[in-house]
Amino acid sequence: MYIDKELKRGYNEYTNVDVRDGEGSLMDVGMLIMEDGDTYEFGDEKKEISWLMFVGKATVEYNGKTVEMERPNPFDYNPWCLLMSAGDSCKLTAHDHCEFYVQATYNDTKYETVLYTPDDTDTWRRGADGELNNLMKRDVRTCYDYENAPFSKMVLGEVVNLPGRWSSYPPHSHPQPEVYLYYFEKPMGFGASWVDGEVHEVHHHGASIITEGTHQQVMAPGYACCYTWGIRHFDDNPWEKTRIDDPTHEWLLDDPQYWGKDDD
């Protein structure tokens, strides 16, 4: 499923875990838009909640702590990301235009809420050694996953997809559902997303809800995109960097020779 949405000030819902299992994502997914002076509070007795700052300047208060955050853009700067236990709460105060990706799911496990700073982000520069003519070069950033947050039922990170290039490539899949939410440098930007066997044109603030099949992405030349990737673990099968390569395209993994490869 792909969702396009015109965002308003405040919280904008894409999926609700209590409605058709969040369209298969098993999560609440939304975007929070704030302007200077706005405040917003998150908290739920049964759901863990996580947000990632795409852009903005804000203060977050949680568990007696106060932290100032700023992210001028998602292309040159790593994210701020909060992972909050069910039963906890946090308050955001905006000091400029702010955009936050939000995801939440039911989790009985209580844990200490964690604020992942830009310095905590793990960045993996993939496809950066000339593979496939650098056409799948991208930065894959991870805020938290099963490795550093096994107490959570979720995973959250982001991908910086260069203009005219591919990501989540070569084609692969995993059984756990995943959500991509797109933030383009230019709001008229576009690309293409493979979702559950269908191809969709994607736009600024659009979301792909992926429940099965390969999910490769490509952006149009001239349009840089940063998209979040949020995964919901299965209770009996967590995502542990799980990757099932499409056997039809496995030959691409070895950076093979092919017609036109050396054509500048």
Tally the beta strands.
22
Order of helices and strands: EEHEEEEEEEEEEEEEEEEEEEE
Using the coordinates above, name the CATH class.
Answer: Mainly Beta
Distance between the ends: 36 Å
Number of domains: 1
Main structural class: mainly beta
Question: What would the average pLDDT be, to the nearest integer?
Answer: 96
Radius of gyration: 18 Å
**Biggest sheet, in brief?**
9 strands, antiparallel
Strand content: over 45%
Number of helices: 1
What layout of secondary structure does this protein have?
Elements: E1 2-3, E2 10-15, H1 20-23, E3 28-34, E4 39-43, E5 47-62, E6 65-71, E7 81-84, E8 89-94, E9 98-106, E10 114-116, E11 122-126, E12 138-144, E13 154-161, E14 166-167, E15 172-173, E16 178-184, E17 190-195, E18 198-203, E19 207-210, E20 217-219, E21 225-232, E22 244-245
Antiparallel strand pairs: 1-19, 2-3, 3-9, 4-8, 5-6, 5-7, 5-8, 5-9, 7-10, 11-12, 12-13, 13-21, 14-20, 15-22, 16-19, 16-21, 17-18, 17-20
Task: Describe the structure concisely for a colleague.
With 264 residues, the protein is mainly beta. It is built from one helix and 22 strands.
